[in-house]
Each structure stands twice: as C-alpha cells, then as structure tokens.
C-alpha cells in the first residue's frame, strides 16, 4: 500500500512538471517532495542489524542535540547579525524577514522581539518539522534502541523545548495529534517519570523568554 501511495505521489509530481509554466522552478519544487520518498524507499529496503540501528540512532541523537543547542544559542544570543553572515536576507534596519520572528512582527512587543529558532535550516517551520519527526520516532523507539534513561530523557527534553521555541504551530499540532492517536501510553509514562524535570524546564524557558523581552525593551 505504501508503494502504491508513493507511485501516485511521483505521478502527481511528474504531471506538475509537465503542466507548470516554469519547468525549472517546477523541477526544483518537485525535488523537495521526491527526495524524501526516495530516502524512505531506500531505508525501508535496508537490512540493518540491531547493533547498526543503535549506532545510527546515537549519531542522530548527537546531531540533533547540536542542531538544538546551536539553534537556541543563535536565536537568543547571536540574533540576526550572525544569520546575516550566512546569507539570510534582511531589511534596511538589519532585521530578518518577519517569518523569523514570533507573530510576524505584527502583535505585541514580545511577538516583535522574540526570534524563532531556525538553527541550520532555512525556516523555523522546516526546523520544527525535522525535530518533531525525531521526537516522535524516538518516543516510540526507546525500548528498541536500549538508550540509557538519563541520556534519553535529557535528549527528549532538549528536542521538545527546541520545538516549542520554533513557534511552529503546524509542528505543535502534528506532535499533539501523533501523541493523541498512537502515543498516549508513551507520553503518559514519559511525563510520569520526568514530571519534576519537565516542570523545571518549562519554568526556565518562560523565564528566558520574559527576561529576553525585558532586555530588548530596555
């Protein structure tokens, strides 16, 4: 059934290329949709040992932690100046595009000053999509990966906190729906075991946001 769905998606992309007024732009957009399908089919047909899977999982964990910590540091300490050096567009005042900020520069003073976590991605929503995928996969795969509990919980809290700081509502909704549909038991056990650390993490995050906004207003 998955193969049939992928064939349909590939066919739709081919039709889009054929009928699109700008074929080069269509090919570029199609690349974004087709590469994940090719990656999925490639991984699905791999025959990895349990040890190999655990090694890959650890590498993904280390990579994701770097992505999260860099993203938070960049958004709340380096700000737009560092991103300018990486080639992101800015306006006359040196600010990044509105999508890099909470409320698109359109709400309260907090919305205009808080920069969304983008990390090494081109947009906050893409960053959030990657992190949400990692969070959901690792939530359900813990018992298969045999990751030490302390390391696992620290990793999950960092990823979840970074997802929150992307302020990507679509990713928040995706995680919520996934947990409601297939992950109620896992999330209950996770919260039960990590109630105090989660509460502390939430308080710290709120404190950072409020302190950051106060400094910017001053």
- Strand segment count: 0
Low-pLDDT stretches are none
Secondary-structure-derived class:
mainly alpha
Q: Largest sheet, if any?
A: none
Shape: globular
Radius of gyration: 20 Å
Distance between the termini: 58 Å
String of helices and strands: HHHHHHHHHH
Helix tally?
Answer: 10
Strand content: under 5%
Helix content: over 70%
Mean pLDDT: 79
Characterize the structure shown.
This protein is mainly alpha-helical and 218 residues long. The radius of gyration is 20 Å and the shape is globular. The protein is 77% helix and 0% strand.
Relevant terms:
single chain; 218 residues; mainly alpha; 10 helices
In terms of topology, how is this protein built?
Elements: H1 2-19, H2 23-44, H3 50-78, H4 80-85, H5 109-113, H6 124-145, H7 149-166, H8 169-182, H9 184-193, H10 195-217
Short overview:
This protein has 218 residues and is mostly helical. It contains ten helices and no strands.
